[in-house]
Design goal:
Number of helices: 17
Strand content: 5-15%
Strand order of the largest sheet: 2-1-6
Structural class: alpha+beta
Largest sheet: 3 strands, mixed
Length: 382
């Protein structure tokens, strides 16, 4: 259904610095139009299948949008179960990044064993909550949480990340402990950043974190976006927000300390991934206590429109749906990548004016990685 998409970043150099940065996207931002005319249940089953990354977040955001459209209120236990699934996906995505991508970017061997262990543990989370597989049932599926299994999964994730990082993740959230670890035996990528003195890379650009509840004009802009112009290049009163781990957790003590030292540059952005991992595991511990068994909810007649927002692994994800006589009449998806890789977005702001030396392409790739697009991205210098 969805063709392969990608991003292409071209930096045009004029003398000693980057004069302009062009971002070309082949992402099908209006592909969700293909859902029109389908049954809501069919769309919900398609969402995790057609999105190779963050499929759980895509599906659960679509589920929440449809429930809002139909005025369905999920129970606290259902919300807790869904939060566990979302957090588990974030731990899996960012854990894989630290285990595989961070070493590769620094020219080191990836820690594939840790990545496999993490994925294997989290693969059982959905069945531990919804053994009948009806996790995308409107109003909530049959929730029969296996508490012992869920406890084991969270414990295995914590142990695997501790082994991968070589330090207790919660202790690492203390600024003094983090700086000591950074100087002693940190991850190869963080060591590269430190040795090259690239901690503040990109810190000179304006940092515009996404509001916690999303852009205040989001609903109105989506409703009037007939041609998909807003979906392709979103803004809020001319401002292009940044979304993702740093934008969401910028108030965290570790990140405020690093921002004071190095600004909102490369090191702070990489550390934000570790903050996300630590906080996600902590929140998973909290949500476990809100679980209880529940039968599947009855299906009502589906009519209305709904907008749902989810803080997914890569940032704020928005789904808007219009239901008419039980069918999907309109469907829109606004993903984090359209904000961060906007022609006037965070990446362009960080690269414009950058020194045009022999390391320019590598530095650009590191900043692309720090913003974490959901598709492949090429970088070129002209």
């Amino acid at each position: 259904m969805f063709t392969e998409a990608s991003l292409h970043v071209t930096m045009r150099v004029d003398g000693p610095s980057v004069r302009t940065v062009l971002v070309r996207s082949t992402r099908m931002v209006q592909a969700a139009r293909l859902f029109a005319g389908k049954q809501p249940a069919e769309v919900l089953q398609l969402l995790p299948a057609v999105f190779s990354l963050c499929g759980t977040a895509q599906a659960l955001t679509g589920l929440a949008a449809m429930e809002k459209a139909a005025a369905i209120a999920a129970s606290p236990a259902q919300k807790a179960a869904r939060s566990l699934l979302l957090l588990g996906e974030s731990v899996s995505e960012h854990g894989l990044t630290v285990a595989r991508d961070w070493p590769l970017l620094a020219g080191a061997a990836p820690s594939l064993d840790h990545a496999k262990r993490l994925r294997h543990a989290l693969a059982g989370l959905r069945a531990a909550l919804y053994p009948d597989g009806d996790w995308l049932h409107l109003g909530g599926g049959q929730l029969r949480p296996d508490t012992a299994r869920i406890n084991t999964i969270v414990g295995q994730c914590r142990d695997t990340l501790t082994q991968l990082i070589g330090h207790d993740l919660d202790e690492l959230m203390q600024p003094i402990a983090f700086m000591a670890w950074l100087q002693r035996e940190s991850n190869p990528l963080l060591a590269l950043v430190t040795n090259r003195c690239w901690q503040g890379l990109g810190a000179g650009a304006a940092f515009l974190p996404m509001p916690e509840l999303g852009p205040p004009d989001l609903s109105a802009r989506l409703q009037t976006d007939r041609e998909g112009i807003y979906l392709a290049r979103p803004d809020c009163a001319g401002r292009v927000f940044e979304t993702g781990p740093l934008a969401h957790w910028h108030w965290h003590p570790l990140l405020t300390d690093l921002t004071d030292r190095f600004g909102t540059g490369l090191l702070t952005r990489l550390a934000a991934r570790l903050v996300l991992l630590a906080e996600s595991l902590r929140e998973m511990d909290e949500h476990r206590h809100d679980l209880r068994g529940e039968p599947a909810a009855p299906l009502p007649r589906l009519d209305g429109q709904g907008l749902a927002l989810t803080e997914a692994a890569r940032g704020l994800l928005a789904h808007r749906v219009v239901l008419k006589e039980g069918l999907v009449g309109q469907y829109q998806i606004l993903a984090p990548t359209e904000w961060n890789f906007h022609p006037e977005g965070a990446l362009v702001r960080m690269l414009t004016g950058a020194p045009a030396d022999q390391d320019l392409e590598l530095r650009a790739r590191l900043l692309v990685h720090a913003l974490d697009p959901c598709v492949s991205c090429t970088v070129a210098v002209e």
